[in-house]
């Protein structure tokens, strides 16, 4: 990449970052007072983000699956994984069938999403689906794998992002892995409270330059 190209890219990413951080706070200010009514409205129709049918989402799920670290056990299989903001269970189903985990616990704050996830995953006995804010739902911790995809952008404030980071750290076993997936460059902001958390170390971060919507996957590990 030439110097000019690199400069153009930096300017483009910085202006997109500023716009997406503004959008993050606006989302919080406008929609958070609506609470559960916002999510009921969002899930009026089935699969509002086309998770089950979009080739873009399919590739993102496959890439997420490809970077999942193994469990720190001889067979590398996770005893149980937590999926935060599991929506209608498309990735939950994929993960539960992958052979990478023995059990998946999916949590989502939207009641309609959890109802549909229960329908989708009805045939799988290694999935537990819980309705509620992950920061308040009682969970059988610890998890050696925690996933949080496309959910942090709905936190609406820096304080909420930090409390999410603290909650997910508490849910992770020492040496366990946390995988975050969010649109890029917004993810540079969204993943910051995790990257700088004293109980987390960044293992790898990768930006996928999809022409439709770039995204970033960060993999972190829980320190003692
Ligand atoms: C855009 S969807 C992402 C779905 C899924 N992770 C995926 O990538 O296929 C975000 C989901 O996060 C859920 N959510 C937002 N805040 C949450 C919270 N504090 N606890 C649990 N779920 C939450 C929403 O209800 C929504 O279903």
Report the top-level CATH class: Alpha Beta
Give the termini separation.
40 Å
Overall number of strands = 7
> What string gives the helices and strands in order?
HHHEHEHEEHEHHEE
Beta-strand residue fraction: 25-35%
Helix run count: 8
Bound molecules: S-adenosylmethionine
Main sheet: strand order: 3-2-1-4-5-7-6
Apparent shape: globular
CATH topology: Rossmann fold
Question: What's the alpha carbon Rg, rounded to whole Å?
Answer: 17 Å
Unreliable parts: none
Question: What does this entry look like structurally?
Answer:
The longest helix is centred in the first third of the chain and has 29 residues, at 3-31. Helix 4 (90-97) links the parallel strand 1 and strand 2. This protein has a single domain (3-222), classed as 3-Layer(aba) Sandwich (Rossmann fold). With 224 residues, the chain is of the alpha/beta class. It has helices at 3-31, 36-42, 55-67, 90-97, 111-120, 158-171, 186-190, 192-195, and strands spanning 78-84, 101-108, 127-131, 143-149, 172-183, 200-208, 215-222. Bound molecules: S-adenosylmethionine. S-adenosylmethionine binds at residues 39, 49, 51, 84-87, 90-91, 107-110, 113, 133-135, 149-151, 154.
